[in-house]
Amino acid sequence: MRTSLKKTLYAGVLGLTVFGLVACSSGNDEGSGSGDDDETLTVGASSTPHAEILEQAEDDLAEKGYELDVEVFDDYVLPNQALDEGDLDATFHQHEPYLDNFNEENGTDLVSAGEVHFEPLGLYPGKIETVDDLQDGAEIAIPNDATNGARALLLLEEAGLIKLDDDKGIEATTNDIEENPKDLEITELEASQIPRTVQDVDLSVINGNYAVDAGFDIANDSLEIEDKDSEAAQTYANIVAVQEGNEDDPAIEALMESLHSDDVKDFIDEEYQGAVVPLF
Known about the structure:
By secondary structure, this protein is an alpha/beta fold. It has nine helices and 14 strands.
């Protein structure tokens, strides 16, 4: 059992071993309040926004009798490996499609304990300021990975710029564009690179975290943004993951209750200004 709140950064380097993490046993210390006898809940998370959101749940968890130990990782593979090996009680850094793919590739049985938030893609100005300014043959940059590429195409469809094959949904690619009345040029780029090229294209579809890093004001600068009730939001909600069978563990239930508190919701709304959207 861990005895103090600590945040440790783990580099995403092949072969790096996670040392010294000891997961808690859910049968210990069922009392409430903070103190030396509190059960420690060890959660692996990405730094932004996940670890920052977890920090907001710390005091509420302490009142429930759980001390929070956040272990910060800068990749997605290592925390899931540590969770599977029992070195973490939970992870908070991914959506369920990623988790499903990780399980399939690694023979693991990690499951979702619940949704917390969604990080929407937005359509942003570049050479032009509004969608109405689009000329025939205009260029729009979108992410080149399958997940975000499909979301970007759905967003362009929602903006009325293209029409996709109805059967493809969240698996759509540029090959599934059935109508493109303005003959738009869809340029696929690595997601993190798109904010650096906004002035080279007419419009860009940018992930929420990258838009914030690039200085965009999500609420005021986006021309179109994924809705929290959209197919993408429901599919790519960020989740807390645990080992199968631990979804109903009292410590995990306490964690989810604290993450779904009004204080956490207010923090997300105020801190991220639409770049991160609570789903509770």
